[in-house]
Amino acid sequence: MSAKNAATLPAKGVWRGSLRTLLAVVMVSLLLAVSGVLIAIDFNRARNAAFETAEGHMRGFEERLIARMQSLSGETSGLVNLIVSIANSFLAGPDERIADKVTILRAALARSPQIDGVYAGYPDGGFFHAVNLSSTDWRTALNAPPNAAMAVRILNPNDGAPIGHILFYDAAGKQLLRRTVTGWDFDPRQRAWYRAAAGGSGPVATGPYSMATTRTLGMTISQAHKGNPEIVVGADVVLDHVTRFIASERLTPSAVAFVVDADKRPLIHSDRRLMNAIAASKSERDFDPSSMRDPLLEAIRAKPPSLDSMGLVEADGRRWVVLGSQVDSAILFPGHIAVIAAPVDELMAPAIRGLYQGLAISGAIVVLAILGALLLAHLITKSLHQLTTSANRLQDLDFRTPIEVPTRVREIASLGGAMNRARDAIFTFGLYVPKELVRKGLESGHFGRTARRQDVTAIFTDIYDFTTISERHSPEEVVSMLSEYFDILNDTVSAHGGTIIQFLGDSIFAMWNAPAADPDHAENACRGALSMRARIDAFNEKQRQLGLPQFRTRFGIHTGTAVVGSVGASDRLQYTAMGDSINVASRLEGMNKSYGTTILASGAVFEQCHDRIRFRPLGKGQAKGRTTELDLYEVIGVIGRVDEREPQALAPRPLPSGN
Ligand SMILES: Nc1ncnc2c1ncn2[C@@H]1O[C@H](COP(=O)(O)OP(=O)(O)OP(=O)(O)O)[C@@H](O)[C@H]1O
Ligand SMILES: [Mg+2]
C-alpha cells in the first residue's frame, strides 16, 4: 500500500464514516441514551404516580362508598330504633293516631331520601306504610297527585274483610287526598322483615329483594316495637341510592365498583346492566352470580384481593387494579365487601400519554439534535474539508493558494494556521526539491535512500560566458536575471513532463521518466529543449532591449540507463541519477561549443523519436573522458511544424495518464 493510501486510511478499529455522521451518531446516541433514561425515569415516576393517584382515588372513593353505606344503614336503623323505642302512636292500630305517625315520619323521610318508606306490621294483619314520593316509582305506582310529597297506605284487617286507604300529604304535611283501595291482598305477617323481627328485640336486616310494588331492589331494616314485640316497624332502603352513588364516580371510563355480600354474591354494581341482572336475580332462590357472566366479577370472586391492599387480577384480557374493603358493622351489609376495580391500561393512560409525549418531545429533540449535529458537523467538516483540500493541494505541492479556513472552532483555526506554516515550510522546502520528486515520493511512499536502474532522458544546459556576465554585473543583478531565467526553464521543463533535478551555477540538470514515468521521455525532452530555446530567445530579446546581457544557452540531451534515486547522508538526501548516460548528456552540452550548435543530442535520442522530432546528423564525436564515439545530432524542431526559432512554447505531448 502506498504511503499516500496508508496516510489516508484511519487506523484499524476506529470510526470509518464521515465526521458529520460520527457527530450525528454520537450526539443522537447520547441524546437517545439520555432521553431514553429520562423517559424511562419519567415514565416510571408517572406510572408510580398514576398508581399512587389511583390508589388515593380508589381508597377515597371506597371510604366514601362505605361511609355512604354505613350512614345508609345507620340512619335507617336509627330511625327504626327511634320509632320502636318512643313512638307509642305506632302501638295504636294502623288507622289510629295517623296524624302523629305522619308527623314523625314526614320529617324523617324528607331528611333521608334513601329511605324509600317506613311501615309497621300488626299481629292482626294490619299494615301502616308511609312512602317517600321523591321516588317516581312510587308516584307512578300510587298515581300520586302532583304536589304530594308523602303517601300513607293503611290496611285495616277489618275482621277478615281488609279495607285499604291511601292518604296523600304535601310537603307541609297537609292531607291532600284520601283514596280507598279494594282488593289489596297483602299480609305483613307473611313478609320476611316481619317474621325476622317479630317477638325479637334488636334490628334485623332482610333482603336484598325486589320491592313488592316498585320492583326496585331494596333491603329492609325491621325491629319489634318495644311496647309490643308483635308489632314490627320496618324501613326500606332502595339500593338504587348506592348504585347511583357508585355509578356517579368513575375513576376511569371502564372502572367499576360493586358490593358483594359475605358469600361473595354481588349486591350492588355500578354497571346498570349488571345491576338489573342482580335485581332480577333477587326473586330467584338460589341465585348464581356466575350466571351474570361478568369475567371481572368471576376473577375477583375466584381470587379475592386481600382486604385494604391493592391487588391485580386478569379479566377480559386486561389487568385490573382491585381494592376491596370491608363495609364493616353495618346492619344492612354485615360482612359485605365494597370492591373498586380499574383497568391498568386506563390507569396508566396518563403515564402512557406522558410517555408518548416524552417520546414525541425526545423524538423532536433527537431530530433537532441530528440537525444540530449535522450543522455543527457541517461547520466543522466544512472547515476540515477545506483543510483537507488545502492539505491535498499541499500534497500536490500547490503552494500558491493560502490556506484560509473560515471557522468559529478555535482548534480548527489553529490547525489552519499550523497548516499555513507547514505550507510555507514545504513551499520553502519545495524550492529546493523538485516537486515531481516529492509527488512521486508521496505516491510511492519511498522516501529514504532508494536507487534503482531505469531508462531516463537527461538534459544539461549551460549559459555561454556566464563568468564574464557575472564579472560585469553586480551579484544582485545576476541573481535577479538568473532567477527569471531559471523560472523560464523550470516552467518549461515541468510543462513537458520533466523535472529539474539540480541547479548547478548557470546550468541545470533536468530528467524525464523519473521521478515521473513518461514512455515518450526522449521525445518530450526534445520538445522541452526546443521550447526552452524558444522562450530563452524571447528572454534574450527582452534582455537586449534592456541593454542587459543575453543568456545564450547550450543543451545536451542523452537517453539511456541510469541509477536513479536518493543518495547522500541519512538526513540529507539528494535525489539524482548517476551513470554514464548522465555524464554523456553533460558532455554533449559542452560539445555544442565545438559544433556551434545549440541543442546536441545522442544517437540514442535520435533512435527514440526521429519520426516525431527533426534532427540534423553531425556524424560521430568523442566526448571528453569517454573512449567510445557518439552519433551526434542537432535537434532542429518538431516534425510537421515551422522552424522552431520562432519564440513559441511547444505544446507538450500529453504525458501518459497515471503520472
Ligand atoms: N556545479 C556547479 N555548482 C555551482 N556553481 C557552478 C557549478 N558549475 C559552474 N558553476 C559556476 O557557474 C559559473 C559558470 O561556470 P561555467 O563553467 O559555465 O563557465 P562560463 O563562464 O559560463 O563559460 P562557458 O561558456 O564555458 O559556460 C561559474 O561562476 C562557476 O563558478
Ligand atoms: Mg557557462
Measured as a percent range, the helix fraction is: 40-55%
Record field, number of beta strands: 21
Which hetero compounds are present in the coordinates? adenosine-5'-triphosphate, magnesium ion
What spatial form do the alpha-carbon principal axes imply? rod-shaped
| Order of the strands making up the biggest sheet | 5-4-3-2-1-8-7-6
Number of domains: 4
Cα Rg: 59 Å
The number of helical elements comes to 17
Q: How would a textbook summarize the main sheet?
A: 8 strands, antiparallel
Mean pLDDT over all positions:
84
Task: Please provide a brief summary of the model.
The chain is an alpha+beta fold.
Task: Give the topology, please.
Layout: H1 3-8, H2 19-86, H3 98-111, E1 115-121, E2 127-132, H4 136-142, E3 150-156, E4 163-169, E5 175-181, H5 192-197, E6 204-210, E7 217-225, E8 228-238, H6 240-248, E9 256-260, E10 266-269, H7 272-281, H8 295-302, E11 311-315, E12 318-326, E13 337-343, H9 344-347, H10 349-395, H11 410-432, H12 435-444, E14 451-463, H13 466-472, H14 475-495, E15 499-504, E16 507-512, H15 521-545, E17 553-569, E18 572-578, H16 580-595, E19 599-602, H17 603-609, E20 613-622, E21 629-638
Parallel strand pairs: 17-19
Antiparallel strand pairs: 1-2, 1-8, 2-3, 3-4, 4-5, 6-7, 7-8, 9-10, 9-13, 11-12, 12-13, 14-16, 14-17, 15-16, 17-18, 19-21, 20-21
Helix pairs in contact: 2-10, 10-11, 14-15
The structure holds adenosine-5'-triphosphate (ATP) and magnesium ion.
Residues 462-463, 466, 506 line the site of magnesium ion.
